[in-house]
Design brief:
Elements: H1 2-35, H2 42-65, H3 73-76, H4 81-114, H5 126-130, H6 132-153, H7 159-163
Helix pairs in contact: 1-2, 2-6, 4-6
């Protein structure tokens, strides 16, 4: 399972990093065409906004894999190790349910719905850009299952202490 986690994390790092580099390059292109060529590129601005959404969602999947999602540890830290383990598993199950219902199911629905709409500058179906929702939902679900396995083994109960 550790191998799967490492492969997914490396892949997501590459995808999110590539998206970020593309956003920087496209933004520079946008500035160049606007101020130097006096003929702004409309497609680059639109693509940057979609890439930003992709990078954000891919980054959220990375955070899920690291168990770095927001939490309030003050109460949990005062509980017994068994209760901490149970609450950790419960939190991962909530993340799994959210990913399944909102990202996968909702993402598939909106992607299919938006396939009939075209972007204004790129001329691509909007649904193509929404495919990242179910993709990241599946990635989050995989990560939550891996996280639950780590919690059960006792290797991932407290991500904050492990990373410190």
């Amino acid at each position: 399972m550790k191998t799967l986690r490492n492969i997914l994390t490396k892949l997501l790092n590459v995808l999110a990093g590539t998206s970020f580099i593309a956003m920087v390059a496209l933004t520079c292109w946008q500035v160049f065409t606007r101020y130097v060529l006096q003929n702004p590129s409309s497609w680059s601005e639109e693509l940057v906004s979609y890439l930003f959404a992709w990078a954000s969602l891919l980054g959220a999947s990375l955070v899920t894999g690291e168990r770095g999602h927001m939490n309030i540890p003050i109460l949990v830290e005062r509980m017994s190790p068994a209760a901490q383990k149970a609450l950790g598993i419960f939190a991962e199950l909530i993340a799994f349910a959210f990913s399944l219902i909102i990202l996968v199911y909702g993402g598939v629905q909106i992607s299919q719905l938006a396939m009939g709409q075209m972007t204004s500058s790129l001329g691509v179906a909007v649904g193509v850009f929404y495919v990242v929702l179910p993709l990241c939902g599946v990635l989050n679900m995989i990560y939550t299952v891996l996280n639950i396995a780590d919690i059960c083994k006792g290797t991932g109960v407290d991500a904050n202490k492990e990373g410190a």
